[in-house]
Amino acid sequence: MNLTITDVRLTPILVADPPLLNTQGVHQPYTPRLIVEVETAGGVVGVGETYGDTKYLELARPFAQKLIGRQVGDLNGLFVVVEEVAVDRSRVSGQVDVGGLRGVQTADKLRLSVVSGFEVACLDALGKALGLPVHALLGGKVRDAVEYSAYLFYKWADHPEGVRAEKDDWGAAVDPAGVVEQARRFKERYGFTSFKLKGGVFPPEEEIAAVRALARAFPGHPLRLDPNGAWSVETSLKVARELGEVLEYLEDPALGTAAMAEVAARSGVPLATNMCVTTFAEIKEAFTKDAVQVVLSDHHYWGGLRNTQQLAAICRAFGVGVSMHSNTHLGISLAAMTHVASTVPDLHHACDSHYPWQSEDVLTERLTFDDGKVTVSDAPGLGVDLDRDRLAVLHRRWLEDDGSLRERDDAAAMRIADPGWVTPTVPRW
Ligand SMILES: O=C([O-])C(=O)C[C@H](O)[C@@H](O)C(=O)[O-]
Ligand SMILES: [Mg+2]
Known about the structure:
By secondary structure, the chain is an alpha/beta fold. The protein is built from 14 helices and 14 strands. Helix 1 packs across helix 3, helix 5 crosses helix 6 and helix 6 runs parallel beside helix 7.
């Protein structure tokens, strides 16, 4: 079996996204993703998916060229080769800014975010070539299904008038009643039993009221609130006092390890993060200061499925919980998340996924949630098939875009509705 990589195809696409609100603004009507295909001399094709903004494409293109002639099973080599690709320094700030819903922005992290799409594609190809599911290549599943939580968002019924968009059927959710209604639908449609509300949108009192309404409507169900670091330490402590009884955890209430450590020390509520621990380099300080009790991994920016397993092992050693974060993603990534999550022994919290918000996909068959869970596929590779016609349609949308949607920019999308909008400084409350 010849496992030499002979071709790597990169297809940037724009996928429909509803008007979901977060502390920065609102989601654009279409968001960029990159689909990676790795083909071997034996004719096997593996697929991966990652961020599709220009800064990722700029790295992915030269990286793809360097992989031709290498072995698809040389996963460690991906991390060596990517170091040879220069990162445009103007693309990284080295800071956690409020635009960084995913934490610090570094050259390494940019590279890892690109590698992850290729690592998944290589694992898919390797699995298909060997007749083994990706979870087997990762050491084997320890569960047959992976549980996800309902990812609730404040949202408008529609994107601003005059903006080209796909219509969704979720309606508006801008108050406690709307949030509860959205949660009911999530439960009805997918069977989710835990709920996460994306906060940092309205003043904390309104978000506290929404979580209380959820607690009344779904007694005993795990609840989370995530304002993406929008609150001060004092506000975080107030919310923790008011909601401590009903929250499974509070996610990134305040920005940065020092602030998180203070909130953790002064409140009894467990804190989760996908903002202050987003790289291996950030682990030591955060764990030493006991700043977080749950790390929400994301294989995209941690550098793939095997790095996610390494993160889980470190968390285990420190008695810190692990679960998964998600941004807008398609079925390839949901399959990848499910494979890796199935191999992590102590996964004690339902993982996040935006997938229910994505009405479009590039697969011949969408993945489904049953009782809030995705069944772990035992088919070779990821167990998904690319729909080339759909891929072409979504790529055409990217080609035809004048450039305004090719970079995800929630603040710019908000300015269409509210021309005076500027990305809020933090703490916002
Ligand atoms: O858990 C989180 O912090 C996120 O999911 C960040 C995301 O960027 C989310 O807020 C979004 O896409 O609006
Ligand atoms: Mg978060």
